Amino acid sequence: MTLLEIIFGGLITQILGLNTRYYFFKIFNKNLKKEDFQNDQEDIGSSFSQGFYNFSIGLLVFFLLSFGIVYLLDVFHLL
């Protein structure tokens, strides 16, 4: 259980989700900080929504990366 929490809580939410959202919005607004997208804010509603967005974007990026890696391995006949 702890390993799943580390993978889903750390890898997907904090690394993939947070960084993907940050760099995407950084293209349009140069004044953003990474802290704007983290879920450790005092407002509970804002904290929940940032965590939800980070998780959903992170999960989408994780699936796309997984699919891309498996596809490349299949193209090169390494599976």
Can you describe what's shown?
It is a single chain. By secondary structure, the protein is mainly alpha-helical. The chain has two helices and no strands. The protein has helices at 2-28, 44-75. The longest helix has 32 residues, at 44-75. It is flat and about 50 Å long. The two termini are 29 Å apart. The model has no long low-confidence stretch (mean pLDDT 86).
Draw up the topology in text.
Layout: H1 2-28, H2 44-75
Helix pairs in contact: 1-2
Please give the alpha-carbon distance between the first and last residues: 29 Å
Catalogue the unreliable spans: none
Largest sheet properties: none
Tally of alpha and pi helices: 2
Order of helices and strands: HH
Mean pLDDT: 86
Task: Assign an overall shape.
Answer: flat
Structural class: mainly alpha
Our Rg estimate from Cα atoms comes to 15 Å
Question: Strand-residue fraction?
Answer: under 5%
Q: Give the number of DSSP strands.
A: 0
How much helix, percentage-wise, in residues?
over 70%
Structure, briefly:
The chain is mostly helical and about 80 residues long. Helices cover about 75% and strands about 0% of the residues. It is flat, with a radius of gyration of 15 Å.
